[in-house]
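Input chain follows. Return structure tokens only.
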Amino acid sequence: MSDQPNSERVAEEAAATGTAAEAAAAQTSDYETLVKLMKENEDLKDRVLRAAAEMENLRRRTAREVQDARSYAVTNFARDMLSVSDNLRRALEAVSPDFRATAGSTVASLIEGVEMTERSMLSTLERHGVRKLEPEGEKFDPNFHQAMFEIPNPDLPANTVVQVVQPGYSIADRVLRPAMVGVSKGGPKATAASVEPGPPDEIAEKDA
């Protein structure tokens, strides 16, 4: 009779111990599951961010390519049209002022028609992003100008464009044909524009 309560107590303690162990094991399993889910969540978040970054880069690259295609689609056609424009200009330059002054109405109308054709062609090219380069008086820029000769001129800064032999053309921000120019030689070096003195800095004067 006296051993029965002890046996029951031992059984109860064993059951309690087993329940606690099971609870601890369950908690450990839940923690490991939580850690695993958190890691998977971080991996998924990283993949989403990478995919979003790749899509943004693709969008920007596509937009840039579309813009370039719009800006430079007429490059080859415009370059071919420059020779036509050059021929029109040569035809007009071949007419001397004296001949123009004494020409009859028919010839004068023909000359005027050629001038209008040249202006219309240049205007059409400009509407499609082609800009004429006439850099006389500007500083020589090897990206847009091609120096053909040098002219001594001590009154101008060196490498100033003093004569345009053939105008150049650009399309958007790219050179279509460089302007052929003559540049000055032997003049003073170009200096930065002088800066007008500003109001006195009271703090600087106090520090001095």
